[in-house]
Amino acid sequence: MKKEIFEPYNVSDNNFEQCVKCTICTVYCPVLEVNPDYPGPKQSGPDGERMRLKDPEFYDEALKLCLNCKRCEVACPSGVKIGDIIQSARIKYSKSKPKLRDMILANTDIVGTMASTFAPIVNTAVALKPVRKVMDSVLKIDHHRMFPKYTGLRFETWYRRYAEKKQQEFKKHVSYFHGCYVNYNFPQQGKDLIKVMNAAGYGVHLLEKEKCCGVALISNGLIKQATKQAKHNVEAFKKSIVDKKMPVISTSSTCIFTIRDEYPHLLGVKNEEIRNDSELATRFLFRLIDEGKLNLVFKKNYKKRIAYHTPCHMEKLGWSIYSTSLLKMIPGVELVQLESQCCGIAGTYGFKKENYQTSQEVGKPLFDQIENSKVDFVATDCETCKWQIEMSTSSKVQHPISILAEAIDVESTMKLWQK
Amino acid sequence: MKFDNIIIGGGLSGLTCGIKLAEQGKKCAIVSSGQSAIHFFSGSFDLLGKANGEEVTNPLESMKSLPENHPYKRVGLDKIERLTNDALHLLVRSGLNLNGQADRNHYTLTPMGVMKPTWLTLSDFTSFDQKDSFPWKKAVILNFSGFLDFHTLFIKDGLKKFDVHAQIKTVSMKQFDAIRKNPSEMRSTNIAKEFDKENAIEEFAQKANVLSDGFDVVILPAVFGLFNKTIADKLKEKIEKPVLLLPAIPPSVPGIRTQITLRERFQELGGTYLLGDNVEEGVFENGRLLEIRTNNHGDIKFEADQFILASGSFYSKGIVATHDKLYEPIFGLDIDGDSNREKWFDEKIFNDQAFMHYGVKTDQKFRALMNGEPVENLYVAGSVLGGANPLKEGSGAGISLLTSLHAAEQILK
């Protein structure tokens, strides 16, 4: 018998017709549970879509309360792209204009460039209570929120100065999409990535010019700008992947999810040529090890009890298994897998004054799990999850790549492939 | 990525099979395309409720009259009794509290107000020995104001046949004001989430105690204990009269708790549960399935020594029917079903529909057939197997549980 491919017949551009009204998605929506003003994924997604197709007036501005966590899509037994339907509806029908606050939060690139230029001043200023009160009352950025510190030496600058030259010494090469957080706030994560990849025998290169993936622009309704940046990034990725045959890896689960899936689904930016070779560093490393092309040697004295938190977009990608598998390879690591729950921050969502309470209530079950887990620290692949967990629990958070960087015996690992 | 066993499908069959194999030390993965049909669980696992149109009292005995191609017959009636015990013990080890036995059906009251024979019932619900009597004379049916998924009039009408006087009353509590604001979200799982927080149970029990004054039994929708596993027991302690919970419209609160309990058991045994992923194809060589490719994992393929297909029937797209053909969408396995569309269905909707009996063709060892030849290491379990009409027979859960255990035993041999 010839294999048939199942292709559902849909009249609409999305696949809301596949919804069988089972309501399973509503069980797993983290927002609905704490904020009844949100109509829930079924009503906001496939049910609402049918109404909106008849008359756009049925669009409900409450759809902005969706975190875009995609947990509804993971739960859906019928494969309905519920999260995409909701986000597309916001893009198509929302009449609310982004506020100044939204533009500041969304433009991580521009704000990051400015803030890191004046890092000491900015860091001191935004940490001051009076400044946070003013940001709270004028900009509606919640005063409970601490901005991540800006670095005085951006990752890109550090790379050009101290790392670039050495990368030519390797036989194999990858490009690194570092994202805004690594560049403006936490270059150490990028340095750790280079350390691990170099140990594995790969030279690490930057893209010709990367721009912010645009996830915050999309969620704040700045679609034109997001689309422009998406097109720019796809071209930059093509230069690496197609022209130079260098895959692109990243350490941010949300950046890579946005580039792989949100570009085509929400922005209509085609990415077929680059999608398969754009991935997370943990998946890239896992593949090498799985195929027997890489062996990592670990330090004997590294002993930690670590809890792994699955970020929502990691849950959607289904890729947490790569990060946890790598962590489990470290002999001294005792890994606690936390039940996969949303931390509530959802990028810029939780920074907004009107969302602060929802954000913290959504995250509470996860915070309780972490406090009860008695671990040395939490590991996760998402930078905004890291902020939220560090702001809301007593635990520190590290990226799996940074953990590897600390646990790997670099010289012994390199000797294995240098032979 | 290498596993000992990979199971396609994360419902009752897939989880049972995965738990059994993981208990025996196998490194297992389950790939599930979304949350499973256990979310629609009524609270009872049926083994055999009807055979040849007659209600069954002893399922093990009545199985003898089933057709030869029925999954129970194909597993072998000599093995079935042992497998029913194994299934019960596996579920209990996983943390489910169940009542019932395989050689004598008990009864549960349905939300339509009728008694239905079944095998194992979650301890949330009440099991009855008799189908034609109800142990109480006066019943109060309590519902939540604004909750549309509990159809009290059906229950009241049904109870009339048992000479029971039933009265319907509603309860309002401020804890539910927030979810009531949105009529489409006033559903059982959201009510359950409020009770889970433990700040509504005390007040609710007090109200129930007042409203049930003068009645013998309190009938409530089963909206207790979604993620909180102790709340249903607390409720029964706090309400003075006997409490009879009845299923509400799905998603089912006890069902979701059951799914979570089984999934956690599988994971605690070291199993990998991949949710929201689809198996797209398999790589076959010399009659063996070597590896599968999934949507999320792309070029990183999953290898295993044995695979189990537990992908469900039409509803879960384990098999698909289009206007002109039937097929198994993952591997293109052989289908046991009529190629002539005219024969798929009977126009009288309540008749035994032929399509309900369709499924993947297997050999005697429950290995899938592909182009007429068995795939050496691909076993089939649960409702994707043909040969039964679970709806007519009341046999769905039994077939899922027993064929999965049988498949696991083939692998463990």
TrEMBL record, chain A:
Pfam families to which the protein is assigned, alphabetical: CCG, Fer4_8
Superkingdom, natural source: Bacteria
GO biological process: anaerobic respiration
Matching InterPro entries: 4Fe4S_Fe-S-bd (IPR017896), 4Fe4S_Fe_S_CS (IPR017900), Cys_rich_dom (IPR004017), G3P_DH_GlpC_su (IPR017753), Helical_ferredxn (IPR009051)
Domain 4Fe-4S ferredoxin-type span(s) in chain numbering: 10-37, 54-85
Claim: Iron is one of the keywords in the record: yes
Keywords, ordered alphabetically: 4Fe-4S, Iron, Iron-sulfur, Metal-binding, Repeat
GO terms for cellular component: glycerol-3-phosphate dehydrogenase (FAD) complex; membrane
UniProt-listed SUPFAM superfamilies: alpha-helical ferredoxin
MF terms in GO: 4 iron, 4 sulfur cluster binding; metal ion binding; oxidoreductase activity
Entry protein name: Glycerol 3-phosphate dehydrogenase (Quinone) subunit C
Organism: Marinifilum flexuosum
TrEMBL record, chain B:
Pfam families hit by this protein: FAD_binding_2 (PF00890)
A GO MF term: glycerol-3-phosphate dehydrogenase (quinone) activity
Gene3D superfamilies listed in its UniProt record: FAD/NAD(P)-binding domain
Stretch forming the signal peptide: none
Origin superkingdom: Bacteria
This protein's record includes keyword Flavoprotein: yes
Keyword Membrane carried by entry: no
Annotated InterPro entries: FAD-dep_OxRdtase_2_FAD-bd, FAD/NAD-bd_sf, G3P_DH_GlpB_su
Residues in FAD-dependent oxidoreductase 2 FAD-binding domain copies: 4-399
Keywords: Flavoprotein, FMN, Oxidoreductase
Recorded GO CC terms: glycerol-3-phosphate dehydrogenase (FAD) complex
NCBIfam families on file: glycerol3P_GlpB, PRK05329.1-2, PRK05329.1-3
Name of the protein: Glycerol 3-phosphate dehydrogenase (Quinone) subunit B
Species this protein is from: Marinifilum flexuosum
